[in-house]
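Record type: monomer structure entry
Structure origin: computed from sequence
Chain ID: A
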Amino acid sequence: MVTFTPDLSSFLLSPSDLTAVATCEYGWLHDAVDPRLGRAPRPDQEGGFLERVSALGDAHEARTLERLKAERGPDGVVELPRAAAHTPEGIADAVAASRQALTSGAPVVFQAMLHDGVFGGYADFLVREADGAYEVVDTKLARHARVTALLQIAAYADLLDGMGVPRARHGSLWLGDGTAHRVDLEEIIPVYRRQRARLEGRLRAHMDAGRPVAWDDDVAVCGQCAACEEAVAEHRDVLLTAGATRVQRTRLRKEGVRTLEDLAATEHAPAGLSERTWRGLREQARLQLQEPEPDGAPPRQVIDPAALRGLPAPDAGDLFFDFEGDPLWVSPAGDMEGLEYLWGWVETPDGDTARTAFADFRFTGLWADTRAEERAALQEFVRMVEARRAAHPHMRIYHYAAYEVTALKRLTVRHGVGEAELDDWLRAGLFVDLYATVRAGLRAGVPSYSIKKLEPLYMGADHRDADGVTTAADSVTEYHAYAEAAEAADDGDPEAAREAQRLRAAIEDYNRYDCVSTARLRDWLLGLVGRQTAPAADAPPEPVVDEVETEDPRSESVVADEALEQDLLALVPEDADAPLDDEQRGVALLAAGLGFFRREAKPQWWAFFDRAVSPPDEWQNPRANVLADRVDVLEDWHRPSSRARTLQRVVQVTGHLEAGTELTEGAESRTVYDDVPSSRRDELTAHAVRWIGPRTAVEQVDHRPDGRSTLTLREKVPLDVDPHAQLPSAAFAHTVIPSETLQERLRDHARLTRSLGVLPRADRSETADAEQAPEAPPTAVFDILARRVPATTGRPLAAVTADARAGVLDGVDALVEALESARGSYVAVQGPPGTGKTHVGSHAVKALVERGWRVGITGQSHAVVENFLAKLVRIGIPAEQVGKEKGRRDDDRERPWTALPNRATAFAHLAEPGHVLGGTAWTFAHADAPEVDLLVIDEAGQFSLAMTLAAAARARTVLLLGDPQQLPQVTQGTHPQPVGDAALGWLMEPGEEVLRPERGFFLDTTWRMHSALTAPVSRLSYDGQLHANTAVTDLRHLDGVEPGLHPVPVVHEGNAVSSPEEAAAVVDVVREVTGRSWTPGAGAAPRPLTDEDVIVVAPYNGQVATVREALDAAGFGGTTVGTVDKFQGREAPVAILTMAASSPDEVARGLDFLLSRNRLNVSISRGQWACFLVHSPALTDALPTNPADLATIGAFLRLVQR
């Protein structure tokens, strides 16, 4: 931590200061800097929980040291002593000792002091690699890499560079769960340097101020540390308002709203806050300022009685449930994995919770001190709930906040136990989250809506004071003490046994109290709206589940799939921690594939039912939702024609859409009603407060400059249903995709694998008798699944691809040779922007069709498939040999290929030699689909392994065309294996950006971008291996504009999804480049560049609308503006990318979306000559919380700091 010279004129900083200031700048200045400057007293020391974390971290480091000593021998690890004094002289001596150890070539150096006189610290381990370079290794007890730990590695690597010591490009975190997190330091060091420069600048400014930090200074605050909590209370800060966030605080302070009282007195919404959000915060602040009730309880208001009335009727079988979890639990092997160590619930003897005394609640606690016991607890919990549901069909499990359900989702996948049961419970509304009910229906004068803050409202004489175990952190600390005492008791210590028993009882008592508190809260909420709290004598009718068909989680097919999955898992090591080889991993992937489509659908259905229960601002999957600010009826209910089978109404809904919204034109959707029509109340789902309305089609989406969008929706109800007058309050995208056809092909693969005991592979032996034995099923998909290097009958792929990259072979000829040689397996082609992936692939298909190959073409969408088919016809394959089944929604426009009337005709077409059929995965997975000699998967960087398994089930050979470095494959569900990863990405080595030659081709030459523009794209996404064909790209010319990437910094504040300031800068760029002389290529005549020669890419629809309006006003109507998804495959002489967001705090969908290197790659590479990157410099100021975002920011910094 920071220290100062005696005269306080200079300072010494360490990586821990970067960590501290990134966590909370105010807290760092208040607790670390000012006390050392003599401006403030030293704060109290850390509590027991943090001390436990520190002790566990030290133990993890010590175990790592002992392991390295055992591996390297007594002379293999040099342990360096700490500096005699943390002074410039003491540090200089320690640095000299470290330098000596490193220059002597020590295999491992422990606790080397790396320092440049201002900044430095002790590196945990420096490990010498074979080339003599040292890898920086830091040990962290955490199970996952953290941003601050990665910054420490970057700091030490940069300091090694300053010392002239060779260091490895990558650094590693050795984590508490036994894994290593490896990072590319070239992407992290730029972030470290920027953060260090900001740190030193802020510290010098603070020293020059000559006074302690003040709460109103321009410094970042976390709002949660002890220093912030004290200041928030002292200054009556708006963060006292329950639910207020730091981003909201920033926007309020810009309007002069600094205190709780200021907020309560506001009369209009400040810039950047919606009317709904502002009103909620203002009313919360006003209530918190009211006097307590006569009994001392906080004031409260019922703001939506329907939310409280929507609670289920009490039932004698109701349970009140609470987990106790230890995020720091360490396995016997020393790995920190986390553990749910106590599963507690209470019930009452007769089900009447309101009349049951606190002491009479029956408590059950399932303890788990090991991973095996955790699995057993899960099994027992599932058994108990299923049995109780059988006895009490209308029972509910009440809990407070989302942790219990979130943990159960994680545990069922981890242990492979109860997935179907949990899915059934969630769909049936078994769990009731009282936090969601409180937030929807109640407002209370409390500083937060944690259950502890609400207990004064309803616990009465049973309300617990602050003694003993009263918080989750207390529980974890006591659990660690219990575990240590239990270990000592196992060694025969009777006193330890008594202490373990006492500690365990205290934890159980805490858990029991929380369970009873949940029961009391339920009863109190019912009482607020006059609901009966005792179970009814007659059970209420079971609520009607929505008419949309959802697969029964316990159907025969699901049960059979689960049994088949377990049979496959029996073929791989049972130990969950045992490493799997590629063949075993392939079996595990196939097992996971059996549940892939079911798991993918789960989040959609969970979100579906959640929207009827939870407050709208807490709805899952925000990209699917729109909350209505305004609703207008364009056409009232009517029957469009005499043949129509539905009544229809057209409404316009105006509201904010999330970036990457799923509510696009043509999307299927559902409307949501707060004002439930009386005729629909019997359709409400379990404890719902809203009605999920009729099926709806999104006919039009118009984006407005104010960041909102207007959606035209067509609602439809059956003719025999009375239409309703009420208007929807929201809508959400909802498409049900049938997967049974795909699922059946995965079952085929699984059954074959089970029968063989291993993943099938082609029999290429000379003794294989093809005449007598029936033809074996295709095995190409299994080669992909197990990441096998394709077996070849001719030259190996590596030799063919080497000739192609060297120019010895034409790319098309090379691909044809590779496919012939690898027949029966796969060939992958990674094609970066402008490298001619479709050209090479289509011409190779043409050559093979001429040899009689039957070829299927598939992809993620009909558009992808049809684009490839059109290319095949353009290059000379007769249209009658290229076909695609005509879809039900296809129009009658003429297509270049043959439109086949039905599936039977399509399959007959494909069965002919030398014919091509295009279709989606469903086409080729159909039970009647014939085998194909070659299946081409276009855009395979967006095509999942599970889809590949289904689509390529009858493909002898598979050609994967795509680029995982462009727009990525997206999955929704949580899967035990990465079967949702893109097929092409799966074949690449982890952490590598370029496909290895033994698996196929990396097209390393772009014909689109000038070499100066290719270079940053190559560094960003292709490890520097992408180059331009300068004989083509560099003979283009735009007069007066340098080729390449041009950062355009624009300072602005408070913008999230649209920036008028950046829109103005875009207009300036268009104005600057249009009219200049543009030469499109060698031999082409120059012409003036027009506004149609410029494309603008924006990440958000709001910015698309803002830029569109600005360009139109400036007379540049020919310039196309859109999101990156619309521009894949497009190009223009000049591209402009506008980022819109002012800072990381304002970024919609997170930095991983806005600064995604995949999206940056696609956006920048639209330009032939130049790309202008319009951005706010503050985007790179703040540190993210997600480690992946750290490298993302570093990559972005390398683009804009050129």
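Annotation 1: The chain has six domains: 3-209, 236-289, 305-529, 619-733, 779-1003, 1011-1200.
Annotation 2: The chain has a mean pLDDT of 89.
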